[in-house]
User: What shape does this take?
Amino acid sequence: MVALAVGVVRAGAVLLGALALVAMGAACGERKEPTGAVVRIYPVSVQGAGERPTSLRAAPRRIVPLGSGPRRILKALGLKKRTVSVNDELVGLPLVGQIRRARPDLIVASEDADPLDLARARAATRASVYVEPGGSLDDVEHGIDDIGLLTGRPVAARRLSAAISRTRQRVAARLSGFPVVSVFVDLGGFSTVGSRSLLGDLVLEARGDNIAGAAPEQGAFPLRQLAKRNPDVYLATSDSGTTLDDLRKNPQTKRLRAVRTRRFGILRAGVVAPGPAIGDALVQIAKILHPGAFK
Assistant: This one.
């Protein structure tokens, strides 16, 4: 535990030094990321969403991403040449077999990856495993910074997470003074998400109140409850198949406030992924919930 603490402190100290170099470079008009002996971060240890910290003694040379978030982050960090893709739609032993043949020294997995598959992959490859947190915007920023540290790109990662933070600040400024509106999120067939999810957190930050609550049951949201809570805004994902015309024709939804006032919006499918573009999703949702703030 002492060695682990030293590794974390050392990584943090080096990251601060690297960020100081970024600030100096920005002041001088220089944007290149420090390389070589300037930034020494190993050994490094970070705590993601997994049960135990992820530790590395040297920069990983072969990285396997599992999930769209990890893939997008690694690409944005300029690590395409070190990334080894596998079919992460597989599960169980077929997936583990592909990971083993990829011979990674680091596996970066999304939070919904099967823990048993990850444990098997770790045992088969002896690779370090990092589970990216993705339940909130803060989690996304934290995960990007962690992956940057693990892969030797702390400065580039900080730029990505700082860009998300700036977008959040701009959206907050735009929405200042606007009232909170009640929202229902339709993923298809009236299935929905709770407020304790990344999409739920985006709705909250866009000054929305998710009527489904923290943890709705799986399956279709009860239409009686939907009618009772009568949302101001109806938000559907583009792959849900839900349209305003359908809602207006449905006897159980045509009287909803959001349907009667046509406060209906479609969010592009796939945009809500815990990666560098999550700020775009926030802007999209904020414009649907508060169009008047963006005129």
Observations:
- Residues 1-38 have pLDDT under 50 and may be disordered.
- Residues 2-27 form the longest helix (26 residues).
